[in-house]
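Person: I have long wanted to understand how a fold can be written as tokens. Underneath my words sits a plain record pairing an amino acid chain with its backbone structure tokens. Those tokens are not coordinates but codes from a learned vocabulary of shapes. I should like you to check that the lines agree and flag anything odd. The protein I mean follows directly.
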Amino acid sequence: MTDGVGSRLVNSNEADERLTAAHKAAEILGVKSFSNLNFPDNRMDSVPLLHVVKEVEAKINEVQPQVVYTHHIGDLNVDHQVTHKAVMTACRPQPGFCVKEIYAFEVLSSTEWQPPGLLPFAPNVFVDITDFIEVKKQVLEAYSEEMRQPPHSRSIENAIRLNALRGNAVGVAFSEGFQVIRFVR
């Protein structure tokens, strides 16, 4: 949705470096394509929601996904909140609409940093990633400029610990936790 660094640019190459890292991470995952919508970083609340919705709707019309993953509405990061609202608006239930499933995901140092009592993330769908944990580590290392050193919650070590916690909660070694927003069968 944004370049992810525009609000904190230290040098003019930082946005390009982040995009290069995103391409490298996507390559590791086997992602064929992705888009950046270039909204202002940490300022998406300054853009009319309708503009964001229209961009999301255009992508949905282009891709025709059956499953959509979005940020948790309770994230501390305002861009995540706006993205969630735009996705939910763009995915209004309509007869014959392509999207049948919507899941929210958690983002370290955003989801758990929201003040207590405000929409906590409560995963109720778990995907076993035990066989892919080494790939996840490679992706996080490719995206290293976004990661921090322990004991920061957005460290590679903590991300893997969270996957272990989510996995152990459902009897596997590692999993990703999601929250069902909508599920139509």
